[in-house]
Amino acid sequence: MKQKKRWYDYLWIVSLTYLILGFFNILFAWLGLLCFFIPLIISLVQGNKAYCNKYCGRGQLLSLVGGKFGLSQKKDIPKWMKSKYFRYGFLTFFLTMFLLMLWNTYLVFAGTKNLSTAVTLLWTFKLPWHWAYHGTLFSGGVAQFAFGFYSVMLTSSVLGLITMVFFKPRSWCVYCPMGTMTQLICKGRDAAITKNDTK
After folding, report:
1. Whole-structure pTM value
2. C-alpha distances in angstroms, 90 versus 11, 29, 132, 180, 193?
3. pLDDT value for 195
C-alpha cells in the first residue's frame, strides 16, 4: 500500500526555490539561515535528528533527482567518508570557511573592505553574480553576508549532487556538517540527561 504523502514530504520545493531565488536576487540567501538554525533548535529541544530524517528539503531533493529520476549509481558510499575522522574533519573545515565568511562580512560592515559581488563555488572558484544584486537599504555588509552564505549553500548543494551521482542519492547526508553537528548535540544532550539521572 502506497504511503500517503505529508506536508513535509514536499519541502524539496523550498530548497529548490531557495536556490532559484538566490540566483536572481542574492538577498534571498538570508532565508537559508532557517536551514541553519532549525536543525540545531530541534536537536537541542527534542534531542533527535527529526530535521534530517523528515524536514530536510535538500535530502528530499537528492532522493528525488537521484532516485525517482535515476541519476544516481546507487552505490554504497566509501567507508572513509563514513568515518568520524572525515565527518569531523569536514565539519571543522566547513566551520572554518563559515567563520571566514563572517569575518569578510564584518570587514564590509566596518568599511575596511569593498563588497564582493561574487559567489565562491567549492570555496575556490569565484563566479560573478553581480546581476543578482539590486542594492539594499542597509549596509553593504548585508549583501556581503548574502553572497557568502549563498556560496556555502550552493557549494553544499553541488557536493550533494556529486556524491548523489556516484553513490546513493542521499550520500551527502552521511557527512553533512549540519547532520554531524545535530548528532553531536543529541549525544551531548543524552549524556547530560544521563548524568543528571544518576545523581
Report:
1. 0.92
2. 26, 22, 29, 9, 28
3. 73
Predicted pLDDT at 199: 62
The model's confidence at residue 84, banded by pLDDT at 50, 70 and 90, is very high
In the numeric block, the cell 548524568 is attached to 195
Helix segments in 64-176, DSSP class H? 79-82, 84-110, 140-166, 172-175
What nine digits make up the cell of 103? Answer: 569575518
Contact call for residues 150 and 32 (beta carbons, < 8 A): yes
Residue 121 CA to residue 63 CA, distance in Å, equals 23
Question: Under a CB-based contact definition with an 8 Å cutoff, are residues 135 and 18 in contact?
Answer: no
Q: What is the pLDDT of residue 190?
A: 85
How far is Cα 27 from Cα 127, in angstroms, rounded to an integer?
Answer: 16
In three-state secondary structure terms, 118 is strand
Containing 128, the helix (H) or strand (E) segment is strand 125-128
Query: Residue 101 in contact with residue 148, Cβ under 8 Å?
Result: yes
Which amino acid is present at 50?
A: A
What are the grid coordinates assigned to 127, written together? Answer: 563566479
Closest CA to 27 of 115, 157, 158: 115
Q: How are beta strands 125-128 and 118-121 bridged, if at all?
A: antiparallel
- Phi and psi, residue 126, nearest 5°: -85, 120
List all residues 6 or more positions away from 12 whose beta carbon is below 8 Å from its beta carbon: 57, 58, 60, 61, 63, 64
